[in-house]
Write the C-alpha cells for this entry.
Amino acid sequence: MTLALFAAFAALLVGCSLMVILHRNPVASALFLVLAFCSLAGLYLLLHAEFVAMVQVIVYAGAIMVLFLFVIMYLNLRHDVEQGIAVAVRRGAGWILGILLLAETVAFFKGRWAEGPVSAPDLAPVAGNTQAIGQVLYTRYLFPFEITSVLLLVAMVGAVVIAKGRGPGLHPAAPAADAAADAKAAAPDHAGGEA
Amino acid sequence: MAAFWHDPNVRMVFWALVKILVILQAMLGVVSYMIYAERKIAGHMQARVGPNRVGPLGLFQPIADVAKLFFKEEFIPDGANKVIFHIAPMLAVIPALIVFSVVPFGPQDALRVTDLNVGLLLFLAMSSIGVYAIVLGGWSSNNKYALLGGLRSSAQMISYELPMGLSCIPVILLAGSLSLVEIVRMQEHWWFVATPFGLLAFAIFMITALAETNRAPFDLPEAEAELVAGFHTEYSSMKFGLFFLGEFANVISISCIAVTLFLGGWNGPWLPDAFKFVWFFLKLAALLFFFIWVRWTYPRLRYDQLMNLGWKVLLPLALANVLVTAIVVWWRAQG
Amino acid sequence: MMHDIPLAWMLALSATVFVIGVVGVLVRRNALVIFMSIELMLNAGNLAFVAFSRALGSLDGQVFVFFVMTVAAAEVAVGLAIIVNVFRLKETIYVDEINLLKG
C-alpha cells in the first residue's frame, strides 16, 4: 500500500509541477503549486515526518500561496502573453538545458541506483516525532533558530518598507497588502513555536 | 474472500469508510437542522415566529429549502473562469469535513475516525486551506463585488489565523501533546477552560472562530449591504448551497475543536463511559447556539476595526497568554 | 507501514521536481511564475532533506526543512513586495521588459 501511495503522490507531484510551469494562467499555476505542496505533504507522511507534513500545508499552502494569489489578483493578471521569436528561442534553450540537467542526474544515479539504503530501523517506533523535533530544534539548533527570528523580522520590516514605497511618484500601498505580508513573515515563526 | 476480510488493513479501511459515511450523513442532517434552528432563534430574538408552514412547527423546512436549491437555475457568468468557478464551492466544504476525521466524539475507538498524533495541526492546516474557497470563488466570478469580497476575506482569514493558532498553544503546553484524544484525556479532572490562561485562550479562540467562519459580526466578505453578498454574488442553485453548507460545516467543525480543546471533550459527570459522547454533543449544541446568538446580537464591524482587533488586540493578547502559560508550566515542572 | 520506499526513488523524484523548477525559471517570463518555480526547487530540496533524515535515522534533516521554509517565507514576503512595486513603476511583470539598469 505504501508503494501505491508513493506512486500516486509522486505522479501527482510531478504532474502538478509540470502544470505550474506550463499553464499560461498565473492563478492556475498557483493552484497547481498548492496541489503539488499538498502531495509533498503526503510524501512527508509516508516518510513518517508528520509534523513537517502539517507545517508544509500550514506554511506553504495556507500562507505563502495565499499571498501569491493575493498579489496575482491585486495586479489583476489574466493570461500570459508569450509570443515572439526571442521568447520562443529562450523557451527552446530552457527546455534543452533542463533535459541536459535531467540527463546528468540520470547518469549520476545510474551507477548507484540499486544500493540506496533502506530506512534506518530504529526511527520507525517514534510515536510522535513532534517532541523529538522540538528537542533537536531547541538544543542543537538553538542558535540558528534564534537567527531565523531575526531573519523574519528583517523580512517583515523590508516588506513593509518596500511595499509602502517612497517618493512622490508612487501611490501608498494598500494596507491589506502590508497586513498580508506581515502574516507571511510571522507564519513560520508561529509554526516553529508549536514544536 | 474470508482471508481478504481478515486482513487487518482491509478491515481498517472498511471501518474508516463506514465511519466517514456516518459522519457525512450526520453532518448533513445537523447542518440542515442548524439552519432551521438559526431561523427559528433569529425569529424569536426579533419577536416573530420564524418558519412555521412546512410540517409541524416548520420542522420540514430544511427539506423544502434543499429542494428549492436543487431546482434553481444554474448560472455561470460570462467571462468566468469555469473550472475554478466549479472547484471553489467544493473547496468550501472539503476542509471542514476533513477536520471531523480527527475529532474524538467519545472515549471509545469506534467514536472517532482516527487518532492522529498531529491532530491539532491538521485542524490548523485545514482552517488555513479554507481561505481558497472564498478567494477563488470571488476571483473566478469575474465580478468586482465578488472580487472585493474575496480579497477582503483572504486578508481577514490570514489575520485571524495567527491568533487562532496562538490560542491553541496554551492547550498544547498544558496537555503536552498534539493528539486531540490525548488532550481530552488530560482534561479528565479539570477542563482547560477553567484555568485563567485557558479561559483567555478560549475567548480568543471563539472570537477568531467567528472570524474564520465568516459569521457575523465578522461577515465582511459577504456584507450584503455594501458588497451585494460578496464572494458568492454570482453563485446560484446547489453551488450556492455548497457555500452555505461549507459555512455551517465549518461552524460545526470549529465548535467540535473548541469543545475538544477547552471544554473537556467527552468528559462530564454521572454518565457511564458508554454514554460519555452525550456530553460532547451537549457542549457542541451549546457552542452552536452561541454562534447563532452572537450573529443576531452584534452589528457588523467596520473593516479597519476588524484589522485593529485582529492585529493590535488579539495577537498581542494571545502572545502574552502563550508566554504566561509557558512560564507557569515551566515553574510547575521545576517543582 | 509494511514497506519502506527506497531512498533512491525519493531522491530521483526530488531531482525531477528540481529540474522542473529550473526549466520553469528558464522558460517563463512572468516574474510570479518564476518565483513559483523557485519555490518548487526549494521544495525539491526539502524532499531530499526529509528522505535523508528518514534514511539516516536522524531528525536533523527535518529541522533543516524548517529553516528552508522560514527562508522561503521571508523571501516571498520581500520578493512579492518588490514585484508589486515594479508593477506599479513599469506596468508589467515580464522579466524581459524590466530592464531598469539599462537606463
About this structure: Chain A touches chain B at residues 1, 25, 27-28, 31, 34, 50-51, 53-55, 57-58, 61-63, 66, 69-70, 73-74, 127-128, 130, 175-176, 179-180, 182-183, 186-187, 190-191, 193-194 (CB under 8 Å).
